[in-house]
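so ive been stuck on this for like two days lol. basically i have the seq below and the ligand is zinc ion, smiles is in there too. i just want the complex predicted, nothing fancy, no docking runs or whatever. if the output looks off dont worry ill sanity check it later, just need somthing to start from for the group meeting slides
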Amino acid sequence: MDVNSYMDVKSLCRVCNNFVSASLFRLHHDYKQMVCPTCFSGKTKQKEEQERELKQQEIKAAKAKPRGWDADDEYLEKMARIKREENQAQFTKIAGTNEVKAQCSACKYVFKYDPFKKKPYNCPYCNVEVPKLKNYNLL
Ligand SMILES: [Zn+2]
Ligand SMILES: [Zn+2]
């Protein structure tokens, strides 16, 4: 063991709870006791304030984005996508015309659909909105 450290008497600083060489202790008039150099210079106080601020930021962040937010969001996104796919009417090109046959996803009614005029807007049978025809490569 190092002789110097063996000789170095350490004392507990009651402010930061660290053992520091007793010779370095100084009387701090705010703490009204002997404190280590770190506490004397006010670094301990600074650190405490930084930590408190950090905690508050963490709390704020936790409130803004609750635990499990990502998973829930992903789930909702997935459900919305499934729903979109379900609502996707089936389109089939009618040979020799610019029109397509559309099958309503809700009632399975088949009707003529004009992909250029985007008409009809609704299923003639059940009035469900006809999804926009995306697959123009069908034509
Ligand atoms: Zn201290
Ligand atoms: Zn319909």
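The first strand starts at residue 10 and ends at 12. Residues 13, 15-16, 18, 35-36, 38-39, 44 surround zinc ion (ligand 1) (CB under 6 Å).
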